Amino acid sequence: MPIIESTPADIEYEKLVLFQYSQKKFEDAQNLYDSLKSKGEKGIEFASVPIREPNTVVQIAFNGVLVTDGIKVSEQFGNHQVGFSFSDPSDHEAIVGLYDVFKYPSLDDWEEKSFIKNDTIWFKLKVDKNAYTFANNKKLNARKPGESNMVAGESISIIATPRAYFNFETKSYGISFTVNRFTVN
Question: Cα(119)–Cα(29) distance, rounded to whole angstroms?
């Protein structure tokens, strides 16, 4: 399947869809929940759906600066994460266009969760078997995230794939990103 790699300002948001779910099949969040339940999905309190063009994977190029000193590990959840801020204000304004994918489901009584908090995007860094699951140029060690030797203000690029998520328990939805490549410039 072809891959498009674009900056947020260059994405054609009107072409993006919730992959695997056409407008007819996915008319609202309850329809998604019922579909997952009928397939016998486990843990259906939470669903994550790729955001892409109908026949093309979309990867977003985030170019900006690190706003955290190194990699932070959440005490509550154990997640590894970094804070990011765009260098180009037009990318910051454009990225919220991702929420246009929620135009099909009826989410009137659901809470929208923003992935931007205080002008910072927090990227969760996936760890599998004590190693990060993305390519990087810093030889980052998931066992020693505090030794990443990265400081706030450093120029970074992150290539990530957007996903829509639905939390059926709390009736909330939002967007998350799967980091594919992390580069300190």
Answer: 28
* Band of residue 102 on the pLDDT scale cut at 50, 70, 90: confident
Token representation of residue 38: 């009928």
Which residue type, as a one-letter code, is found at position 176? S
SS3 content of the chain, % helix, strand, coil (to 5): 20, 40, 40
What pLDDT score does 32 carry?
Answer: 67
Residue 11 CB neighbour total at 10 angstroms: 21
Cα distance between residue 12 and residue 15, in whole Å: 6
How distant, in Å, are the alpha carbons of 115, 121, 122 from that of 118? 10, 8, 10
When the pLDDT of each residue in the chain is averaged and rounded to a whole number, the result is 85
pLDDT tens figures, 49-74: 888 888 888 999 999 999 999 899 98
Helix or strand holding residue 4 (H, E): strand 3-6
Distance, CA of 132 to CA of 154 (rounded, Å): 20
Q: Is the distance from CB of 51 to CB of 11 less than 8 angstroms? A: no
What are phi and psi for residue 10, nearest 5 degrees? Answer: -100, -5
- Hunting for tokens 């919220």 — which residue is that? 96
Spatial separation of the C-alpha atoms in residues 76 and 106, rounded to whole Å: 32
pLDDT of residue 24: 45
φ/ψ of residue 74, rounded to 5: -65, 125
